[in-house]
Amino acid sequence: MAEDRTKRIRELVALLREAGRAYYQESREIMSNYEYDRLYDELAALEKETGIVLAQSPTQNVGYEVVSALPRERHESPMLSLNKTKSVEELADWLGDQTGLLSWKMDGLTIVLTYEDGALAKAVTRGNGEIGEVITANARTFANIPLRISYKGQLIVRGEAVILYSDFYRINGQIEDAGARYKNPRNLCSGSVRQLNSGITAERNVHFYAFSLVGAEGVDFDNSREKQFAWLKGQGFDVVEYRRVNRESLPGAVKEFAQAVEKNDIPSDGLVLLFDDIEYGRSLGRTAKFPRDSIAFKWEDETQETTLRYIEWSASRTGLINPVAVFEPVELEGTTVSRASVHNLSIMEALELGAGDRITVYKANMIIPQIADNLTRSGVRDVPQICPVCGGPTQVRQDSDVKVLFCANPECQAKKIKRFELFVSRDALNITGLSEATLEKFIGIGLIHEFADLFHLDRHEETIVQMEGFGQKSYENLLEAVRKASDTTLPRVIYGLGIAGIGLANAKLICRHFHNDFEAMRHAGRDELTAVDGIGGVLADAWVSFFAEEENSRMVDRLLAELHIEAEEEREETPLLEGKTFVITGSVTHFKNRAELKAQIERFGGKVTGSVTSRTDYLINNDTASTSAKNQKARELGIPILSEEAFLELLSSQEEKESGKEDRESAPRSE
């Protein structure tokens, strides 16, 4: 079957790409040359047989392209928006006695693909509906797009470019500064798809899901949209998930989608219903704004009215000061919420937001707390003229079309506190006993100005012992923690420096690439750094900029003089959770949220999915005795249910096993 051959092509592409990455970038082999060649030949034969070639196939050499500007192009026919409803009854009335296809309304960037003679010829964004931007070179780097298909006529297909939640959390997890993280997958996707350098697009793992076949000359689809979807699958496309519905089955299908929102890896902001009967849909025509053959369904957001208590201004280590609305607690979608990010001054001004206002709040896509409306609109006031942390002057800056607030003081304590907080964190120098509050005190009275100062706290014994919360024993414990931290590894030091976007995983990759030669690393140019697996242009630029500042280099030299860098044997590392699949449910207490726990699992090589199946290794739920559907399913399948504490113990035991293994391998052997 065509679908089976397409599935096998995807499997082979994934296998061969992983083998190539291991061999060429990590100097290790996960399969023999004979096996690689055999699978490569099988893939090439299948591509020839089916005419389907995926964008990331190892049989292709897709060069990256850099342009000065994206060209614009007018669409042959305008791309209209969809009319919307939040009522299931209205949705059923719209469908009437017809059969429809109900699918996700994906939250990304709409793209139009054109194929000529079996090859991808052009990719254009939706733009304003009439004029879009040509992003063909970028589309060629999408994770799952077919570069070649078996059909040789002209094919025009519309779909959504998206960045999956799992990739969104992974990318944001590499950015330590909360103020610099991407707000949502759609914004990240939009910026990724519209890059001038297609190499950056390739790093973002953009996916494409087809949702509409505009034209395929000479192909008879028997007047059925569903058959169009099946045909597109046979050509190698991923198609939006859908259900075939009628008036009676529609409410149940809507409910199924609603229950699947939380575990859906593809960002969505509702559903789309379209008539399966192509000619019937076309016969209805269109309005000036909307087509009549399809309609969007938006979730009926649960909203609650509450009172805005105040705006909290939170400074980050980049200097950005973020407004957060703090309001009287309310129940939303089963949880208590009392805070919502307002993101920037522009949004505050649009809402005319002031303390004491009556506001309505909801969870966007049933997940993220947001302010829906301001009922009293007293107006924006009391925007800080001085930084709430250091007292230095603030500046309102225009970032693209958005007003944002910055602290202009380069010596701002908030910037210092956040930098030091990262430096002493577990994955960096791991200095216990230095909480954010303690760091704030030490910085406030001038005990520490830069990282090296932490290793000279013995000069301030009298001051520290007399501080509130400290005594002689606490002081001695702190000095011992600092002493232990001075024996460390180079990746931990690099991560602790707080270079924008450089997480611990990236630091390890850089160290491995440069064979732990720090001088070579610090003087590396952009091209040398982008040659490192996982390091793109943005991270390379951040690295180069950091070390281009002489004071940063001097600061690092003073720090290194206080440290003993352990020589690391270059060896193949096996992630602690490699091959393990987890499902997370319920609330968490040891992590900020489930996304952070998910990022931790993935950092150690594990995988997180949304539903419990026979392939699941562990279910994480603090309420291990719960009778929830996931707990029941796990018990039926004999899958362990772990609390967060049990998960951390599992991780610790795995670390101990690896450590013991390394000790045994390095120990002298008796003859």
Task: Just give the CATH class of the largest domain.
Answer: Alpha Beta
Number of helices: 24
Helix/strand/pairing class, anyone? alpha+beta
Uncertain segments of ≥5 residues (pLDDT<50)?
Answer: 23-28, 658-671
What would you report as the Rg, rounded to the nearest angstrom?
A: 28 Å
* CATH homologous superfamily caption of the largest domain: DNA ligase/mRNA capping enzyme
Straight-line distance between termini: 59 Å
Q: What is the overall silhouette?
A: globular
Number of domains: 5
CATH fold-type name of the largest domain: D-amino Acid Aminotransferase, Chain A, domain 1
Number of strands: 26
Q: What is the strand content?
A: 15-25%
What is the typical, i.e. mean, pLDDT? 82
Helical fraction: 25-40%
At CATH's second level, what is the architecture of the largest domain?
2-Layer Sandwich
Describe the largest sheet: 7 strands, antiparallel
Structure write-up:
With 671 residues, the chain is α+β, with helices and mostly antiparallel strands. The protein has five domains: 247 residues, D-amino Acid Aminotransferase, Chain A, domain 1, CATH 3.30.470; 104 residues, Beta Barrel (OB fold (Dihydrolipoamide Acetyltransferase, E2P)), CATH 2.40.50; 73 residues, Orthogonal Bundle (DNA polymerase, domain 1), CATH 1.10.150; 76 residues, 5' to 3' exonuclease, C-terminal subdomain (DNA polymerase, domain 1), CATH 1.10.150; 86 residues, 3-Layer(aba) Sandwich (Rossmann fold). Strands 14, 15, 16, 17, 18, 19 and 20 form a seven-stranded antiparallel beta sheet that branches. The longest helix has 24 residues. The C terminus is likely disordered.
